[in-house]
Amino acid sequence: MLEKTLRVLEYPKIIEMLSDCASSGLGKSLCRDLKPQIDIEMIRQGLGETTEATGMLIQFGNIPMGPLFDLKDSIKIAQIGGCLSPKQLLEICDSLRTSRAIKKFISGSESAHEKYPLLNAIAILISAHQEVEKHIELCIISDQEISDHASPELRRIRKGIESKNAAIRNKLESIIASPSAQKYLQDPIITIRQDRFVIPVKSEHKNQIKGMVHDQSAKGSTFYIEPMAVVELNNEMRMLKVEEQKEIERILRMLTGEVAEIGDAIITNTQALSQIDFIFAKGKLSLAMRGIEPELNVQNRFRIKNGRHPLIHKDVVVPSNIWLGESFNTLLITGPNTGGKTVTLKTVGLLTLMAQAGLHIPASYGTEISVFEQIFADIGDEQSIEQSLSTFSSHMTNIVQILNEVTPNSLCLFDELGAGTDPTEGAALAMAILDKLRNWHVRTLATTHYSELKEYAIVNDGIENASVEFDVETLSPTYKLLIGIPGKSNAFEISKKLGLSQELIDYAKEYVHKDNIEFEEIIANIEKTRKQVEEERDAAIRMRLEVEKLKKSLKEKEEKITTQRDKLLKTSKDEAKEVLRRAKEEADEIVKSLREIKKNADQGKNKEIEAMRKRLADSISSVTDSVIDVEATNEFAPESLLLGDSVIVLSINQEATVISLPNDKGDLTVQVGLMKMNVNLKGLALISKKKQDDKVVKKVRAFNAVSANIKTEIDVRGHNIDDAVMIIDKYLDDAAIANLERVRIIHGKGTGVLRKGLHAHFKRHPHVKKFEDAAYNEGGNGATVIELK
Length: 789
Fold this sequence. Notes:
- The protein has five domains: 3-129 and 262-287, MutS, DNA mismatch repair protein, Chain A, domain 3, CATH 1.10.1420.10; 152-234; 295-498, P-loop containing nucleotide triphosphate hydrolases (Rossmann fold, 3-Layer(aba) Sandwich), CATH 3.40.50.300; 539-689, SH3 type barrels; 710-788, Ribosomal Protein S8, Chain: A, domain 1.
- Helices cover 53% and strands 16% of the residues.
- It contains 25 helices and 23 strands.
- A hairpin with a 4-residue loop joins strand 15 (646-649) and strand 16.
- Residues 516-600 form a coiled coil.
- Residues 714-789 form the Smr domain.
């Protein structure tokens, strides 16, 4: 890509953000070297690495990237037989420790091998050398200090040095404590000069203390003398220190030799760690800007869904939906100043560059990006005082260069095409340039203020109008991009809103060409129609929700009636059986008694017979009362019915149709198949009213066209749980109406709070049959697939 294009589209700022996400200097260097690619396989691999890093960061947290150094020079010294310093060895030790931690982090589980294959392919190159790492840790304490535990010989030497040191100090302390010597001393202290223990003697008494002079003060008033009594001890101390230095050098050479043996492996580790740091920097940047992996193609078409400019704060930026290369190859964007036209151009260009560099882009799932061989951008005013170039000349110089280098596989971005000169000539030049690019099949986005270009886009194939919406009521842009609608000049409306008299506005309109006024009126009518359509669509959605709510309520009521009916029938049957059983036993007993009385018939038994008859009548009455009580417990008995209503006859558990209205006692006639029967309201349960059903059918049919176009996925990232639940409930209602069997909810990974909350909601949702995390290529645990009932 041209450096000028990268600069104009602010790609270096993205790279700086990426570099800040890296942990090591080597990783930051790889970030700064990242450039957009044109090989689609290389781009796919880069995007795949970013996706894996993002998934691992969400699943396991931040990567344990410890210190990482450029060790090429140190390894070269070791391999040619040199001796490494303690500092260099510590850097190697830190790098070995980091290598071991990163390898465990990436390849620590079997599932990680399958889930993150690209990262594992790099991690497998890392080798652990824990023995060398531990040996260096044991021997070296800091950049300047070797541990006593580095070798037994070093420990012996240092103990000897401590012993000699104590003997020398004891001897000197006895000298400076002596009354005869104190009068010659400048201060009663022991100090060191040239690695020898000495005492400070006044210059006039230097001959009174026998020994070797090693130094004198700046003014010459003090001589530092090593008394003869400690000369031999100091000599022994010096010999021990020479031995110590030799042993330290031996230890360093031994460690350097161990490093040299694994030098090539250390270099490989460093390169792999640098690459991993770079990849995880891409993952961190993706999470920071809520990015996604776009789909790729080489057909020079793109479709950006809810694309956001990554350099504008996510709480301020307005998402844009923009597409090109399908039904049209040129998009002409019009609208007021500060309305977002230039931001739209930069968003398209920058997101394309980021995708071709293997970076995730801030957009919604379903976004598709094309791989362009070159992107050309003429954006902003780059007039040069030194070169005496005006704004128009500067733009034209860029355009001439673009036209000389452009190919059919290029993307061209023009801001205010033809501006900076006479409007008529500028518009003519702009149309000529767009014609040329259109004939070459070059994908082009351009912004303009010229009305002529709006008309040009309407009458020519392959070119489409677009505009950025402007709210005349608030005198501010909404930053919403509207493809298919040319922008309208709002000068008169804004002036009127700001207080300019209608008389002046009407007078000004007389200077505007009639065709221009008519064209602006057409645009205004289109905009008015669009808003009406949106309002009607919103009203239709509200009505559909109302119908769905009514449908759900009716279904729940029907289910409740059915459940209660079944329960009531079971209870009634059980009670009736029990009543009949008792009645039968009672009747058998009475019949048996009557037979006995008949055998021994006499006049005195008449009273007993009457008593038995009364007992039998009471038993029959009890059975009848029990059946009536069962009917009385029917809480779903309808209060009123209409001809044609559908009901359940509880006594026979059959559906029937009302063919006569109930009388004062609640008795009526129903049709059960071919049979008519008389029943009471208490023995019925209402299924549905004929008139209500007709209304529901009409409303459902009115919205079949809307529900038929429902998509199979919805994106709720960026919403809190309450808002996401509200959006998803509406969506699942629509999906149920449209008879969809399977849908995908995109909620992102983030902290996992939104995913957990939605899963809890899905468990009790009436439309959800089952749900599970999406497949890896469908978003993994950043999305949920739902199977509808």
